[in-house]
Design a protein that fits this description.
The chain is of the alpha/beta class. Among the domains are: 140 residues, Rossmann fold; 141 residues, Argininosuccinate synthetase, chain A, domain 2. The protein has twelve helices and 14 strands.
Length: 404
C-alpha cells in the first residue's frame, strides 16, 4: 500500500481527537487536515480551530451544517416516523452520514489519501463512519486509531496528552462522568453509573430538559404547520428547518419533554444502556403522526409502519448511503405528497398531547360518513352484514371442520 501522505480527521477538539491529531503525525508521518462540523452540539467549536493549528493541522475546516443536518437528514427520517427498537429517535446515528459526506468531499478538495475518526472499536459509530465512507468513495483508506494504538484507557490517553503538552479542558471544573454526544436533535449519555441498567440516572445529568416534576404547572399550546410531511411553521410563523427544531427544543425542554432511558442492541453485538434527550423531536414525531392520521390512506399508513423498523435499522447500523435506504426513502417521500395541514398540541409536565388536527385540502376524514347522527345516506349500515360474513367465511369453515 502506498504511504499515507495526508489524512482528513473528524475533529471535535476533545481529548480523543486531540490525541489522534498528534498520533497520526507521529505514527504515519503525514499531514493532517481537520474537519469540525457544527450540527447543533451547543458547544463553542471555534476553540477547535486554534487548538488544531497549534498541534500541527495543515488546514482546518469548521463549518455550520445545522440547516443541512435538519433539512436533508433529520426531516427525511421523521417523514418515516422513525424509531429504533420502538423508542430511540436516532439523534447520533442520523448525524454520521452528513459528517462522513463532508469528510469525503474534503478528501477530494485537499487531495488527501485517507480519513480518520475517533470512534472506539466497541461502538456503532465506527461502522457508521466507515460504511458511509466506502459507499461514497470505495477506495478510501480509513484510519481508526482505537483499533490500532495501545492507548487503551482514559489514563493512557491523559498520559499521552500530558507528555505532548495537549491541554485537557474540564467542563464546569469537573470531569463529566458520562460519555456524551450532542446534535441539534438530541443529547446522549452513556458510561459511568449508567453501565448498571438498574441505577436511575441523577437528575443533574440532563442538560436540555427540566424534570417533569419541576416543569411549569401551566399548559403550553402550540400549532405546527406541515407541507409534504415537513414541519414548516410554528404558531403561524414560517421557519427554516433548523430554526424550527431549535424553537421546539426550547419549548419541549421547558416542559420536561423528551427524556428516555433504554437498553438498545448495538450493531456490533452487545447491549448498551443509553439515556437520551430529544425534546423537539418528540413533539415532531407526535405531530407528524397526527397529520398523517387524517391525510394518509389506511393501507399506505400501515405499509409505512411495516417498513419503518427496517428503515430505522438501516440508519442505526450505518446504511444511510446504501441503495436500499434510498429506495425506501423514495417510497416514504412519495407518501407525503398530501401530508399537509395543521396540528395543535398541548405540552404539560413531560407529556405531548395532540388536541387538534386539520387539513383544508387533503383531509380524508369525513364527518358526514363517520357521524353517529343521521348521515343522509352517506353510509348504508346494512352493507356491513355481507362484509362481515365474507371476512368471517374462512373462520366459519375452519370451525365447522374442527367440530367433526
Amino acid at each position: 500500500m502506498a504511504a499515507i501522505k495526508k489524512v482528513v480527521l473528524a475533529y471535535s477538539g476533545g481529548l480523543d481527537t486531540s490525541v489522534i491529531l498528534k498520533w497520526l503525525q507521529d505514527t504515519y508521518g503525514c499531514e493532517v487536515v481537520t474537519f469540525t462540523a457544527d450540527i447543533g452540539q451547543g458547544e463553542e467549536i471555534e476553540v477547535a480551530r486554534e487548538k488544531a493549528h497549534r498541534f500541527g493541522a495543515k488546514k482546518v475546516y469548521i463549518e455550520d451544517l445545522k440547516e443541512e443536518f435538519v433539512r436533508d437528514f433529520v426531516f427525511p427520517m421523521f417523514r418515516a416516523n422513525t424509531l429504533y427498537e420502538g423508542e430511540y429517535l436516532l439523534g447520533t446515528a442520523i448525524a454520521r452520514p452528513l459528517i462522513v459526506k463532508r469528510l469525503i468531499e474534503i478528501v477530494t478538495e485537499t487531495g488527501a489519501d485517507a480519513i480518520a475518526h475517533g470512534a472506539t472499536g466497541k461502538g456503532n459509530d465506527q461502522v457508521r463512519f466507515e460504511l458511509g465512507a466506502y459507499a461514497l468513495k470505495p477506495d478510501i483508506h480509513v484510519i481508526a486509531p482505537w483499533r490500532e494504538w495501545d492507548l487503551t484507557s482514559r489514563q493512557k490517553l491523559l498520559a499521552y496528552a500530558q507528555e505532548h503538552g495537549i491541554p485537557v479542558e474540564k467542563k464546569r471544573g469537573t470531569e463529566s462522568p458520562y460519555s456524551m454526544d450532542a446534535t441539534l436533535l438530541h443529547v446522549s449519555y452513556e458510561g459511568g453509573v449508567l453501565e448498571d441498567p438498574w441505577i436511575e440516572p441523577d437528575d443533574g445529568m440532563w442538560s436540555r430538559t427540566v424534570s417533569p416534576e419541576t416543569a411549569p404547572d401551566d399548559t403550553t399550546y402550540i400549532e405546527l404547520t406541515f407541507e409534504r410531511g415537513n414541519a414548516v411553521a410554528l404558531n403561524g410563523a414560517s421557519m427554516t428547518s433548523a430554526s424550527l427544531l431549535t424553537a421546539l427544543n426550547d419549548l419541549a425542554g421547558r416542559n420536561g419533554i423528551g427524556r428516555i432511558d433504554i437498553v438498545e442492541n448495538r450493531y456490533v453485538g452487545m447491549k448498551s444502556r443509553g439515556c437520551y434527550e430529544t425534546p423537539g423531536g418528540t413533539i415532531l414525531l407526535k405531530a407528524h403522526r397526527a397529520i398523517e392520521s387524517i391525510t394518509l390512506d389506511r393501507e399506505v399508513m400501515h405499509l409505512k409502519d411495516e417498513l419503518m423498523p427496517r428503515y430505522a435499522s438501516l440508519i442505526y447500523n450505518g446504511y444511510w448511503w446504501s441503495p436500499e435506504r434510498k429506495i425506501l426513502q423514495l417510497a416514504i417521500d412519495a407518501s407525503q405528497e398530501y401530508v399537509n395541514g395543521h396540528v395543535r398540541l398541548k405540552l404539560y409536565k413531560g407529556n405531548t398531547m395532540v388536541v387538534g388536527r386539520r387539513s383544508e385540502k387533503d383531509s380524508l376524514f369525513d364527518a358526514d360518513v363517520v357521524t353517529f347522527e343521521e348521515d343522509a345516506g352517506a353510509y348504508d349500515q346494512r352493507d356491513a352484514d355481507g362484509f362481515i360474513k365474507l371476512n368471517a367465511l374462512r373462520m366459519r369453515l375452519a370451525a365447522r371442520k374442527q367440530r367433526h
